[in-house]
Design a protein that fits this description.
Largest sheet: 7 strands, mixed
Membrane topology: Lipid-anchor
Shape: globular
Strand content: 15-25%
GO biological process, one term: retrograde transport, endosome to Golgi
Distance between the termini: 33 Å
Bound molecules: guanosine-5'-triphosphate
Number of helices: 6
GO molecular function, one term: G protein activity
Catalytic activity: GTP + H2O = GDP + phosphate + H(+)
EC number: 3.6.5.2
Structural class: alpha/beta
Length: 214
């Protein structure tokens, strides 16, 4: 296990279709800024940000990747060495949700991850600020997809109104810590089946839907 001290650096890669809000999520988290007219990313960009959890400071090196297919060869070389992967879609874009499996597979292939089943993936449904009429992916669909794909952590965020953005990155680090400790003890089980019908505190899963943090 890596020492969890002041200098722990974690590489976090954000993947998902073009336009789902990856750059906006990173910028909201790092600079608390939102750009209504964010440009498509070409290749990758990264920013560092410290986060404190249980008295420990972690430096997140956050890699924002280009979601458009034509930039695939520019983004995939940067997957290696990742500690955490945020699989991102937009709740008003069903196609971006259907593409989650493609993103997961692309990541596993190019990141050359040894423990496929236990890698810390977090599923992030962005743009939760949109109206019910515009919503194309329900919370139940998110829950089902995660359960079917063995992913224990999901969250809906809004980079626009800052809802759950800090929480998503915090959840990612907490999951990484859990995965590291399980790897240490050889306890590989995701027994945290996601059930969004349970009230918070009742469920052992780490799913955070619709809560507003800031
Ligand atoms: N309503 C709403 N719009 C958002 C949100 N996050 C991002 N957007 C908008 O969605 C558009 C795309 O955002 P980006 O962050 O550039 O998307 P991206 O996933 O980085 O796109 P690529 O760089 O092409 O991969 C921009 O017009 C943003 O203003 C959000 O939480 N809510």
């Amino acid at each position: 296990m890596r020492p969890t001290n002041k200098n722990t650096m974690l590489k976090v890669v954000i993947l998902g279709d073009g336009g789902v809000g990856k750059s906006c999520l990173m910028n909201r988290f790092v600079s608390n800024h939102f750009d209504e007219h964010s440009f498509h990313t070409i290749g990758v960009e990264f920013l560092n940000k410290d986060i404190e959890i249980d008295g420990e400071t972690y430096t997140l090196q956050i890699w924002d990747t280009a979601g458009q297919e034509r930039f695939k060869t520019l983004r995939t070389p940067f997957y290696r060495g990742s500690d955490i992967c945020l699989l991102t879609y937009a709740v008003d874009d069903k196609v971006s949700f259907r593409n989650l499996s493609m993103w997961k597979n692309e990541f596993l292939y190019y990141a050359d991850v040894k423990e496929h089943l236990h890698f810390p993936f977090i599923v992030v449904g962005n743009k939760s600020d949109i109206s019910n009429e515009e919503r194309e992916v329900s919370q139940i669909e998110l829950e089902s997809w995660c359960n079917e794909n063995g992913i224990c952590n999901c969250i809906e965020t809004s980079a626009k109104n800052a809802s759950n953005v800090q929480e998503a990155f915090k959840m990612a680090v907490q999951y990484w810590l859990k995965a590291e400790s399980r790897a240490d003890k050889n306890e590989y089980s995701c027994n945290d089946t996601i059930d969004l019908t349970k009230k918070s505190g009742e469920s052992r899963s780490s799913c955070c839907i619709g809560a507003t943090e800031e």
